[in-house]
Amino acid sequence: QVQLVESGGGSVQAGGSLRLSCVASGYIGSENCIGWFRQASGQEREGVAASYTGDGRTYYADSVKGRFTISQDNAKNTMYLEMNSLNPADTAMYYCAASRWVSPAICKSRFYASAMDYWGKGTLVTISS
């Protein structure tokens, strides 16, 4: 079983930056899919960024490309989401998620379908104009 705990959310003004962290307990290992998702009030959950740990390939939502960066520290079992140039449209609850022992193709499909196996409880990000 894998447990994920997010931190780093908060309130910032437009144009600001935040870094979200997600600590995983339980074995993560290689050939896994890790990702960040968000859900704004009244909207469906959407994928923000994902990474296939086997080879480091990444996937991003068009709305965050060039502004957000997903990364991980295997030694700390921690994944990160660096968010820059934030705007009010980025306001949402952000969740980290993971799937173990999947292929790159499965990782990509699960990212776009928001269908990962393990989920954190979320951290709130609020961007004011």
Question: Could you characterize the architecture of this molecule?
Answer:
The protein is mainly β and 129 residues long. It has one helix spanning 104-113; strands at 3-7, 10-13, 18-25, 33-39, 46-52, 58-60, 68-73, 78-83, 92-99, 118-119, 123-128. The strands form two sheets. Strands 2, 4, 5, 6, 9, 10 and 11 form a seven-stranded mixed sheet that branches. Strands 1-3-8-7 form a four-stranded antiparallel sheet, with no helix packed on it. A hairpin with a 4-residue loop joins strand 7 (68-73) and strand 8. The radius of gyration is 14 Å and the shape is globular. The mean pLDDT is 93.
Helical content (DSSP H or I, runs of 4+): under 10%
What is the distance, rounded to the nearest whole angstrom, between the alpha carbons of the first and last residues? 40 Å
Query: Total number of β-strand segments?
Result: 11
Q: What structural class should be given to the helix and strand makeup?
A: mainly beta
What's the helix count?
A: 1
The largest sheet, given as strand count, sense and whether it forms a barrel, is: 7 strands, mixed
Query: What would the principal axes of the Cα set say about the shape?
Result: globular
